[in-house]
User: Fold these one by one.
Assistant:
Number 1:
Amino acid sequence: MTKTAPSSPTVAIARILRGLGLTQGRGGDFRVTGEYRNGERVGTYVLLLGRRADETVAEHADDIERLAGETGFAFRVSVRYFDGKPRPVCSVANYGSRVRDTPPAPQEAPAELDAPAVCERPAWESEPSAAPDVDEPTPAAELPPAGTTAARFLDGARERARNRGRAKALDWSYRQAYLVATAAAGGLVYDRHGFLRDCLWPGVPGAQVDEARLGPLVKAGFLTVTQPFGTGYTRVSITVDGRDALTLWRVYRPTPAVKDRKQEREQLQPLVGGEETARRTAACIEDDRLRRVESDAFYEAMGELHAWEDREERRAEAWAKVQGFTYRLGRKPPPGWVPTAEEIAAHILDPAVVDDLRAEAARPTEKPALPSTGRVRLIELPPLPAAPDQAEQLGLFAEAA
C-alpha cells in the first residue's frame, strides 16, 4: 500500500522520527502536540521523552529539517547544552527560531588529583594536547581510529542498538510473529476451498487461521500471496523484509505487543530500512512531485486566464469612456471597434489599450480563444435539427389519419 503525502505537520514529523527508530506515544520516545496561545494554535512541537530521543534528534538534526522540508511542512531543530554537560537537550517545532550550540569540551581533572595509572592507556587514546590558539570546537568525545579493535567494537554496538530499535518498532503480537514464522517454514497455505490453514505437518489438513490477521502483514510487505501450491492451493510466502524482520525478532526478542483480534487487524509499519519502506518513500516523493507539477500547471493557466480577463476589462473601460457610459452593466464593445484619433486625444486613452484594440480589429473573423485552466474543457455541441413548421406538422397528421 502506497503511503500518501502527509496532510498535517503532526503526521509529517511523526513519520520522520519513527523512521529514525523512535517510538511514539505513552511509554515511547516522543509525542507530538500543539502550542496554544490565547486559545489559538500557533504551531506544532515535539515533546522528546528520555535521553535516547535527545541524542537521536541531535545526531540527525540536519536530516530531520531536510526531510520535513521535502514534505512541505518545515520544522526547526534546536540543540542546546547546559552547565557544560555533554548531554544534548533538543527541541523540534515549526515555529520560533533555531539554536545550535557547540558540544562542550570534556573537562580535564586537576593535576593534583591524578591517580597513578593501574593499567596502560589503550593505544587508540591520545594524550591531551594544549589548547589551540584559534577558537575551534572540541569534539565531545575522542573516537578511536577506524580499523582498530575499539572502533569495530563501537560500530558493532551502534549496529546492535539500531537493530534493537528496528525489532521493537515491528510491534508484533505473539500470534502475528507465529504467522510470519509459519509462512517462512512454508506451512501457510490457502486450500482449494479458499480457507487459510496452518499446514506445518505433511498430510495433515492443519488448523484454520483467521484471514484478517494476514492482511496487515501483507500490506506492510512482510508476506505475499503469489505462489501456487498444488491443485487449487496457494502458498503464502515470506518476503525479503519479512525474513529480515523475523531474524531481528528471534535475535533481539522484543516484548510481544498485547493485542486483541480488533487490534491485530490494524495497520502495521513496514521494516525500518527495508525494501517496502524505500518503495513507499520513493512513491511518496514521486506523488509529491506530480502534485507540484499539477499545481504549477494549474496556477500558470489561472494566471493566463486572469491576464485575459484584465485585458478584456481594459478594452471595455476604454469603450465605455468613449461612449460616455457611467454604468456599463450588460454592455460590451462591438467586435472590431477601434477609437479614432480624436477620441483617443479627447479621452486620453492608454496607448497600450489602443494598440491591443487595433491588433484585435486586424483579425475580426477569428474567434477569441479563452485560456484553458487545465481542468475545464469547452465542448461545442452540434446544432439542433430545425423543427418542422405548422403546415408540415398538419400534413404529417393527415397522412397518419
Number 2:
Amino acid sequence: MTEPGCCEGKPLRVAIVGSGAAAFAASLQAARDGARVTMIERGTTGGTCVNVGCVPSKILIRAAYLHQLRRVSPFDGAIARGGAAVDRSALLEKMQGRVAALRRDKYEKLVAETPEIELLRGNARFAGPSRLNVALNEGGEREIAFDRALIATGASPAVPELPGLRESPYWTSTEALATGETPRHLVVYGGSVVALELAQAFLRLGSRVTLVARSTLMSREDPLIGETLREILAQEGMAIRLHERLENVAFRDGRFTMRAGSETLEADQLLVATGRSPNTRELDLEAAGVRTDRSGAIVVDEGLRTSAPHIYAAGDCTTQPEYVYVAAAGGTRAAINMAGGSAMLDLAIVPAVTFTDPQVATVGQSERQARDSGLEVETRVLGLENVPRALVNFDARGFIKLVAEAGSGRLLGVQAVAGEAGELIQSAALALRARMSVQELGEQLFPYLTMVEGLKLAAQTFTRDVAKLSCCAG
C-alpha cells in the first residue's frame, strides 16, 4: 500500500464505489486535497436519498398533509373545507421534476465542474487489495488501480422470505414513490420509519390502509412513541395490527391475498417496508480483506477505516446509523483520513426525525437505554396541551419527554412526538453536546409561541407544575 506523501510526486489515486451522499462528500473533499478520484456508479447518480428516499418521500408526505388539511383541520367551522381531488399523475410529475433538479444541481453538475473527478458507469468488484474491476454499462471492462478506496454503496429495501411474495407485484418504498396510483386498499407490512411515513401518506391521499407490524410501532424507541402514534393513526382511520406476521402472499386477478395471524387479508396493493440491507454482496469484499457483520454491513472504526487499513466505508452499507447526514459526514472524514488526516466521526449524539404527522424526533438516550447502561434517571413527560404553540395551532397531539441523570440533572435524552418536532430536536442535541442540566435548559430564553419552547417547559417540569405558570414565564 502506498502511504500519503510517498507517491513520488503523483496525486493520490482514490477509487469511490457509489455516488450518493457519502461518495460525493468524499469525492469533493479528496479533490480539494489534490487526489485524482474515480467514482463508480452502476445506476442513477445521487444515491437513495435524492432519488428514491428522503426527497421524493417528503414531497409525497407534504402533499398528503396539505390534502388532509383541505379535507379536515382543527379550524373546521371557522374555515370552509375544500374537496379537491388528488391528481396523482400531476403530483408524480412535480415530485420527479424536483428530484431531477436536485440530482442535476447537487450531484451531476458538481462532477462536470470538478476535473479531478471521473465518473464511471458500471458494476465494481474488488480484484485484489488495491484493484477494482468495473463491468462498464456500455460494455467491456476496466481495471482501476487505487491507493485508497471508499465503499459507499448504500442499502436497498430488505425483502422477507414469504411464500408467494417474490412472484407477486408487491411494492417496496422505491415502487411506492414512483407510482401515480392510489390503491383503494393498501396493506403495509412493517412498523418503523418508512412503513409509517408512507402508510400515513397513502391514507391521506385516499387509500384505505391496513398496517401489519411484527412487533410494536417504532419498537426500538421509547414505548410511548409507538403508543402515541398508534392512537393518532387509528383516529385518522388506519387499521393497525400489531405482533403479527404475514405468513404467505398470493396475487390473482389483480388482487393480493395474505395470511396474517389467523385471518386472511385482501388488498389492491402490498407495500413491504421491513428494513433495509447493505449493498455489499456483489463487491467481492473478501478479495480486498474487508470484513462485514452477519447482515453484510461493513465494519468501520471512528475514522471510517475498514479491516483493510487503506480501504474506507461510509453510509448505509456500514454498521453506522442509516441517515444521509451521517453518511455525508462520514464521507468527508474518510477522505480527510485518506490524505493522512485523523478526522473522527463522533456518533455520541445523533438526532433523528420520522416525518409522520405529528413528527417523531429523538436524540440521546431513551429511558430504557439509560437504565440499561447502569444510570439512575429521572424522566418527565410534557403533554402538548401545556405548550402554547400547540394550543394556538389547535393541535395538542403528542408529547415531549426528557430523560435526566438522577442527582445531577444532566440531560441524557429527548423524545418528542409533536408538530414540527424535527425543528426542535437540534436544540436538544446542542443541549446534550453542552452537557446541560435540565435546570440550565429550563433557564434558557426560548422564543414564545414556538414549538421548541416545549423543551424549556419540559425542563421546568422537573421542579414545578408548568400548568400553574403564566404565559412565557421565565
